[in-house]
Amino acid sequence: MTMTKAYKNQEFLMGEEARGVRILCEYLEPKTRLEAHGVNRAIILFGSARIRPKPAVGPDYYALAADLAERFAQWTNAIHGTDERFYLCTGGGPGIMEAVHEGAARVDRTLNIGFNISLPFEQHVNPHVDPELAFEFHYFFMRKFWFLNVAEAFVVFPGGYGTLDELFEALTLRQTGKSRHMPTVLFGSEFWNGLINFDRLAERGLINPMDTKMLKIVDTVDEAFEAITVPLLSLPRRF
Hints:
alpha/beta, Rossmann fold, 9 helices, 43% helix, 13% strand
């Protein structure tokens, strides 16, 4: 009779009883790989997987995201040593995520990190992320854990439910003191001002008026670049 060790038993590992093991794997494997590649900190850029270049109407957020990421890559490569660089981290998929990595790759594609998620539609790793720093998550909460773990700043482009979920997760953790202060930029006033009235939350007493200062809405690459890099220049080393 051939015996199978528990850690080689695929039926067990993919079953209900081993969910804790799978969750632990999505913590330990990324941790090991990020440490091996010296990833200490990143600028996180969120946005829709559905946005494509050259839209018929409205701003070309794809081009803007690519240009901003290129600026970030030039900036960090010019002034930071290898162990101090800021990586450009997204969900690793198409749309805004691909635009970011396309822009960074114009300078140095090794700065790109993709935290991909297994979905039945839309999501796949874009071609600008090297396999060494492309991750595939099953659990959304573990994926968001790693975004927050490496994050030092956020830029959020227009997006749907997923983008809003990621934005409010970051804001909630900062508001409640579960994460450190991190500059947060919302790109595109025509989108954000028509979508969320943050001041209304303060007016109704649902958040502290100071909570509205946790983010800045911008419309240009220059504005976004300055709003993120100026605070990061005074950031103490985390490692």
